[in-house]
Amino acid sequence: MAEQHNHTHDSHENHGSFKSYLIGYLISIVLTIIPLVVVLNDMFDKTVNMIIILIMAILQFIVQLFFFMHVREGEPGKPKWNVMALILGLLLVLTIVVGSIWIMMNNTVAH
Fold it and tell me: In 41-107, which residue ranges form alpha helices assigned H by DSSP?
C-alpha cells in the first residue's frame, strides 16, 4: 500500500511578493542612476562625487538586504537576530578596515 504524502509546507519560508520585488528594483535603478548622472555631468568636485557614490552604495546595500534578501522576514523573533548579526558583522568589518587604514596612515618610519 502506497503511503500518500501531504506536500503542505509549514516551514515559514517567506518570499517577497511581485510588488515588493518591483519596488526594490525601481529603488535600485534610481540609486544607480543618481551617481551616474552626477558624475557624467560634472556637477560637483571629486570629493563630493565620492561622497554621493558612497551614500548611494550604502542605500543600495540596504535596499538589497530588505527587498531581495528578506532580512526582516521569517519566524517571529528570528528577524531581530538576523539584523543584529548583520550589524555586528558590519561593525567588525568597519573596525578592521578603519583600523587598518589608521595604522597604514600613521606608520611612519624615521630614517
Answer: 46-63, 78-105
